[in-house]
Amino acid sequence: MTDLAKSIIVHNMKNKFEWEPCLVTGCQRPARSRGLCGSCYVIIHRQVTEGKTSWKKLERLGKVKPTTRRSLAVQYITS
Q: What distance in Å separates the CA atoms of residue 13 and residue 73, rounded to the nearest whole number?
């Protein structure tokens, strides 16, 4: 385990949060967005923007988590 990972664990233990590892096989960095670490997210986001895949397809395959953000229209209507 890297020093960065250890420091994140200690930091999260102090805040009583536990981190989940990135969903990409072999990656042990903490997940941030859609279950991916920052580095893996950038790589996959590039593939999505280039039209090689889509977020929906990756969600169906279990490669990424669904987004937790609600659209602005839904936020406006429900608030």
A: 36
